[in-house]
Amino acid sequence: KFNAPVVGRMGVTARYDVLADGKNGGGGGGIALNGNGMDPYNGFGIGSECLATSQANGGHGFECHGATRQDVALDLLFYPTQQITVKVEYRHDWATQKVFLRDDGSYSKSNDLLGAQFIYAF
User: Fold this and answer.
1) What are phi and psi of 80, to 5 degrees?
2) DSSP character for 85?
3) Taxonomically, which superkingdom (predicted)?
4) In the chain, pLDDT over 90 holds for what percent of residues?
5) Residue 62: Cβ-neighbour burial (10 angstroms; 0-12, 13-18, 19+)
6) Rounded to whole angstroms, how far apart are CA atoms 71 and 58?
7) Which of 34, 81, 87, 104 has an alpha carbon within 20 to 30 A of 55's alpha carbon?
8) What whole-number distance in Å separates Cα of residue 100 and Cα of residue 71?
9) What is the predicted pLDDT for the residue at 112?
10) What is the side-by-side order of every strand in the sheet holding 8-20?
11) Residue-range definition of the domain harbouring residue 9
12) How many Cα atoms within 13 Å fall on the side-chain side of residue 99?
């Protein structure tokens, strides 16, 4: 935490995560996968190309493995009062397979996210 002249108390954090998720189709504890064994919004589960190849050959995707997924996040934290924290985060995700659903219905190996949180502690 530090003080900035205009905004007051604030903080900065950076985070890097890696999840080698190749076992058992790429799921995990508490992760809900869709009917195709994929979570296309967070990049968990099997890759779309492996599933398509499997289905084209008469399979169901059981031989597909999950992707290795990584992300880096940069956060700005603002503390306007003792009880309130405002967090703004930019996150870039990438994976070894095309697991992120795009707006046009295709899949990509990377994803970008901008989010905000308002936290009231009591």
Assistant:
1) -65, -30
2) E
3) Bacteria
4) 41
5) exposed
6) 34
7) 104
8) 13
9) 95
10) 2-4, 8-20, 68-78, 84-95, 110-120
11) 2-120
12) 28
pTM for the structure as a whole:
0.73
Structural domain total, the chain: 1
Burial of 120 (0-12, 13-18, 19+ CB in 10 A): exposed
d(CA 44, CA 18): 12
Q: How far apart are CA 91 and CA 97, in angstroms?
A: 18
Amino acid type, 51: L
> How much is the mean pLDDT over the chain?
84
Residue 22's pLDDT is 67
Q: What is the pLDDT of residues 64-103, one digit of tens each?
A: 777 888 999 999 999 999 999 999 999 999 988 888 888 9
State the virtual CA torsion across 90, 72, 31, 103 in degrees, nearest 10: 50
Which residue in 67, 69, 72 sits closest to 112, CA to CA?
A: 72
Q: Which residue has the tokens 């936290």?
A: 119
